[in-house]
Structures are given as C-alpha cells and as structure tokens.
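Entry for the shared binder. Reason: the reviewer on the internal report wants the predicted structure included alongside the sequence.
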Amino acid sequence: MTSSPFHAYAQKIAQVLASYDWSQLEPLAQAIHKRWQNGKRVFLCGNGGSAANATHLANDFIYGARPQGKAIRAISLTDNASILTCLANDTSYENVFAHQLETHADAGDLLLALSGSGNSPNVVAALQKARELGVETAAILGFDGGECKGLADIPIHFEIDDMQIAEDLQQTVGHILTRHLRAKMASTC
C-alpha cells in the first residue's frame, strides 16, 4: 500500500512530536510567566506564516492563558499594516520589527521571534535590537536554527527541513505554553 501525501505529512509531524524533548519549553514558560508577574510585555514577530502565528499566539497569551485577573501583556509586531509598510518603505524591511522594539520595548520585556529558517534579516535585526535594549529573547525555529539560534537567549529548535511543519510546531509550542501558563497563573492568582 502506497502512502498518501496526507499520511506522509501526518507521519512526519507525528515523528517530530514524539521525539522532541518537551522539557526544553520550561525556560520559555518561566520567562513568559515572569513577565506576567512583573507587568512586563511579551513582543512577538515573524514573517509570512510565522507572522500569522505571532498574531495567533499574542491572542492566546492575552486571552487563552488568562485566568481570572490580569492577562499577559502580549503584542504582535506584525499586526499594524500601516507601521509595517511605512517602515519598510521609508527605512528598510529589515528594520520593521527592530524599530518598533526601539519605540515600545523596555529592559525586562521579552521578545519571542518565530522563524522557520532562523535567517530572516528582520527577525535577526529584532533579536539584535532586543539584546541592545536589555530585552530577553526567545525563538521558535526550524531547519538548522539559522542565525537566530545563536542570538536567542532561549532557543526552541526543531531540526526539521520543512517550512510547513516548522510553522505547525510554532503553533504547537504556543498552545502548549498557553495551557501551561493558564494553569500556572491560576495557581498564583
């Protein structure tokens, strides 16, 4: 019996899910929880499907992880088309996230970068700017982790040479974190 492309895709993602050391998420969960406790912000960024995932995870952190009381102050840097197109046009596309961080981020905040390849110049620039500003950095990455892997304080890396599965894993990590944080935050309210 020949495997269908549907079965092959499902099998490939199942293999990654089964073999990953999920304890590697704990430092990121702690970093986000710390921002919630201290009223600091969590910024998210990415390109293409990773941009959509950044928006989705910001929503989950603001609402889905929220127990009774205050929510995680999550902001997706991908959400304002006017800002993105202005900065891309007037400065450079490489600067679209770094400029927003320079404007809004404070030392002690957290940047969560999402990148399938780990080499998107604007995500790399955001991680570099965050470091300059005293903002802790994390990244969810695929392929070999790219340049972002070495720049992130907390790299979550899946060695998978498949962009769609890398983006699926960003959502999986986000949903695991949302559930974990909701329970942890509820116990400390």
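Summary line for the report: The first strand starts at residue 41 and ends at 45.
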